[in-house]
Design a protein that fits this description.
Elements lengths: L14 E7 L2 E6 L6 E2 L4 H15 L15 H5 L24 H15 L3 H13 L5 E2 L7 E3 L1 H12 L6 H7 L9 E3 L3 E3 L9 E2 L17 E5 L3 E6 L4 E7 L7 H18 L2
Antiparallel strand pairs: 1-2, 1-11, 3-5, 4-5, 6-7, 8-9, 9-10, 10-11
Length: 272
């Protein structure tokens, strides 16, 4: 894909990328086996592990977790009212979309208690091992502490398109809007009314500005990380894209990410 050639001009020391169409990788860029810190892209892996735990019967989406009145579903969808980086309650449950990394730490602890397995080990067993993600590991907090490679995340993205780890019904539910109508902030991109989110997966909807392309469909879901990383899945396009860099997210990324993603979408559509 010629669209990936633009990555050579990005102001980063290292960048790796994978594009997926259907169930196969159609393009790669850079050293796809280089390990990067994922930052909040970690939340996609953690959410998937929690959903596996739900389908295994270890926990339930309606189980109490976090602040009084909150559930596992509220935590996954950033609707528990917990603050971004602490367990302070900033809003009543279900009234605002407060993006909370602390909430994902609570999720990990909840699954740990239910399974009696350290959450990093549970994620490795439930997500990494079945997909063969040998270079992926949770080495820090559940909200932002994983490392991985573009090659591994390409496989993970392909599974998000055609689920094997969880049922198609659970996948469809998790990548649909939960607790609709909640306003909130996307870090770095301001307040959105509404700020749609699924169960761990940010839903693009009609947000503007946004880190995906303007031409990505509203059903696109995924996440970006402050370490300069992103993964999106566009079900309408039956495609996904992973880009990992070693430069923290900032003003440099906003125009480049959007332009790049639009170019990728255009090329994928043209190839169908």
């Amino acid at each position: 894909m010629s669209a990936l050639d633009a990555l050579a001009q990005w102001p980063v020391d290292h960048v790796s990328a994978v594009c997926v169409s259907g169930n196969r990788i159609v393009a790669e860029y850079g050293d796809t086996h280089r390990a990067y810190e994922l930052a909040s892209v970690t939340k996609l892996l953690v959410a998937e592990a929690v959903l596996v735990a739900v389908e295994e019967g270890a926990v339930d989406l309606d189980d109490a977790a976090g602040p009084p009145g909150a559930t596992i579903a509220h935590l996954l969808a950033h609707a528990s009212g917990l603050a971004f980086d602490s367990r302070e309650v900033q809003a009543p449950v279900g009234t605002a979309r407060i993006y909370s990394s602390a909430g994902f730490e609570v999720l990990a602890e909840t699954v740990e208690r239910a399974t009696d397995i350290a959450f990093a080990d549970y994620l490795a067993d439930a997500v990494c091992a079945p997909l063969g993600l040998s270079a992926t590991a949770l080495v820090g907090p559940a909200g932002h502490g994983a490392t991985s490679t573009a090659a591994d995340l390409g496989v993970f993205a392909a599974d998000l398109l055609s689920p094997r780890l969880i049922s198609t019904e659970m996948s469809a539910s998790a990548t649909s809007v939960w607790f609709p109508g909640l306003d909130g902030f996307v870090p770095g991109y301001g307040k959105h009314r509404p700020n749609d989110w699924g169960l761990g997966f940010e839903i693009r909807s009609h947000k503007s500005p946004h880190w995906t392309g303007k031409t990505n469909s509203p059903s696109t879901f995924g996440h970006f990380g402050q370490s300069g990383t992103f993964l999106w899945v566009d079900p309408d396009l039956d495609a996904a894209c992973v880009v990992l860099t070693d430069r923290p997210f900032g003003a440099w990324a906003k125009p480049l990410w959007s332009e790049f993603n639009d170019a990728v979408v255009a090329e994928l559509r043209a190839s169908r």
